[in-house]
Amino acid sequence: MMRSRLRLRSALSLLCCLAALLALARPAMAADDIERTAAQLRDRALAGETIAYDFVSELTTRFGPRPAGSAAEHAAADWAAARLRALGFDRVEVQRFPLVGWVRGEESVEIVGAHPQRLVAAALGGSPATPTGGIEGEVVLFDSLDALRAAPAGALEGRIALVNQRMPRIAGAYGALVPGRLFAPGEAADRGAVALLLRSIGTGTARFAHVGSTRYRDGRVPLPSFALAGADADQIERLLALGEPVRVRLHSQARHVHTHSQNVVAELRGRETPDQTIVLAAHLDSWDAGTGAIDDGAGVAVVVAAAELIARLPQRPRRSLRVVLYGAEEVAQPHTPETGGAAYLERHAAEVQDHVLAMKSDFGAGAAQALSLPPGVADSGFGRALYRVLTPMAIVPSREPPGRGGVDIAPLVEAGVPAFVLRQDGSGYFDLHHTADDTLDKIDPANLDQNVAAWAALMWLAAETGADFRALSAAQAAE
């Protein structure tokens, strides 16, 4: 009996080895077949697979908001890893890293005095708690960060600064206003302020505060800082225009905790050049007000669904596809500017020279409309084939360069890894971004499927053709 078992095991082992050798011996796919497979992936996703929607629905329903370092973020990472293993990914890891977490606690902002009224506001990430009884001060209005910086030292002694700059509904406006969220607390503190109010950086008219992290200085945020709903910022502005002083009381029980976050890393190992790696990125953490559906549950779902469609093919692509669901994208840290991205680079530093490209989905669930490729790639055979596949989905070449590709993959890009960027319809994104209204009902499943179609086709072509994106980019730059 023992000999029979040993012979059976030997036979099974031999069969496995033969299967592996046969897989390696398969001839490379012809260019037409590669492009045809990309088109088939595209059409399969567009036919309504709902892989992505099912994923984001379960993620946001099971775990709700997933603040960095919270129990919900940890549980969501374990769940995602289990799902990726069940989908047949070859290697799945939950890679932890230390984090100084921030917990909001109870908070309130109100006008006191002759015209008392509650305001809709939320503390900015990293903001310290107020004393138990809160902080009171007279409001001084500034229409921009530059106007605050122009105030002389001591001009805000014992008072509260309000930076009330409105965000227009145009491309690039968010990036132009984010420095106000980052630097206004420190600038206000330098001028003697006891607290800061910031008009929410968002385009919607709904009465929500748009939260986000602010900048640490010497290991701490200098003073209590709150995002104020646009309608409430307008209310203060009108009261001041009536010629009456406005006094505000702020209260916050925010606190910091030592915890951890994690990157979930899952790989479809390439059949010919497995050390050459393509990174498909999104971030798993979210802010605490909504359920993180558009930021960035949708992105997580898109990259997982695209990789799953490729995994269903009869053979793996030549190169490896690596899904990375980053942790702690939304938060600043007292001593490190980028958390999940920095942790990934540190852990995988020896492999970065073999990273072929990196790409991130983190702009909600709007339809993909344009593709930014590095210089030289768009005019290559790969680029022309890719646009032939994407054109039927009304995706056009973008004149805007990929840049750093997003916060999480920026460390990889700075280390020399080319980035691609699929640019989505963001016309309504900043109505919901970082608010309590970021929930599943804002996602259109058809638009989500369209993103999956673009990602799956793009990633298959990039992994199967063997194009050298670093060389193509370098050659164009040299010209």
UniProtKB/TrEMBL annotation:
Q: How does it assemble?
A: Homodimer. The monomeric form is inactive while the homodimer is active.
Record's protein name: Carboxypeptidase Q
Q: Which residues cross the membrane?
A: none
UniProt keyword Secreted, yes or no: yes
**Which organism is this protein's natural source?**
Luteimonas salinilitoris
Where it sits in the cell: the answer is: Endoplasmic reticulum; Golgi apparatus; Lysosome; Secreted
Domain Peptidase M28 stretches: 263-458
The family database entries (InterPro entries) matched by this protein are listed as: CPQ, Peptidase_M28
| Classification via PANTHER family | CARBOXYPEPTIDASE Q (PTHR12053:SF3), PROTEASE FAMILY M28 PLASMA GLUTAMATE CARBOXYPEPTIDASE-RELATED (PTHR12053)
Q: Which UniProt keywords apply?
A: Carboxypeptidase, Endoplasmic reticulum, Glycoprotein, Golgi apparatus, Hydrolase, Lysosome, Metal-binding, Metalloprotease, Protease, Secreted, Signal, Zinc, Zymogen
What start and end residues bound the annotated signal peptide? Answer: 1-30
